[in-house]
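Researcher: I'm comparing several assemblies side by side, and this is the next one on my list. It has 226 residues spread over two chains. Same procedure as the others: predict the full complex and return the structure.
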Amino acid sequence: GENVEQHPSTLSVQEGDSAVIKCTYSDSASNYFPWYKQELGKGPQLIIDIRSNVGEKKDQRIAVTLNKTAKHFSLHITETQPEDSAVYFCAASIRSAGNKLTFGGGTRVLVKP
Amino acid sequence: NAGVTQTPKFQVLKTGQSMTLQCAQDMNHNSMYWYRQDPGMGLRLIYYSVSEGTTDKGEVPNGYNVSRLNKREFSLRLESAAPSQTSVYFCASSEGTGDEKLFFGSGTQLSVL
């Protein structure tokens, strides 16, 4: 089955700097790659997603890039703010297999004021 | 505007005890899911249901049973709890079965002693 690896496991940045989280996946048939943000004591929430027919997607301060050849995708957060502190999860799925996501291990991001 | 509601929020069990985790969604979604979250391992799919009356195994189904009682409710049962089932459990729902946004509940923290 699919295997998703996520790095780093923890990331500390100064407010205003950029943060980058990287994920690799194993199944070349995967074609949907969402990112979820989990704040303390809450369930994960979708923040951005990308499909395999797109190389990059941006939404305000966050962007995701996808390299299908290398089987990796990344989340970029620019101009980080204290409210960006959370755990971030990448995931991958194969559309034909239904909405069954395989998640990475998570990255704890701390934005220092 | 509750979204996905899980009960209880916290539970402590002794080895061998049984319990049922309840989940309900008010968004008229077709699909519902149960995940467990363990440190460094992301979220792993236990069971899912794409419609009322149907359930399917996910990545880690052993030791669990589920019931899709109706379109709104999806329960997870531990028949004989084991320490390895100590985890945070999340219920989620989505409108369909494709590459769609998952809506998560706030989780149940379960400890098995």
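Model: For your comparison table: Chain B touches chain A at residues 4, 31, 40-45, 48, 50, 58-59, 90, 92, 94, 96-102, 104-107 (CB under 8 Å).
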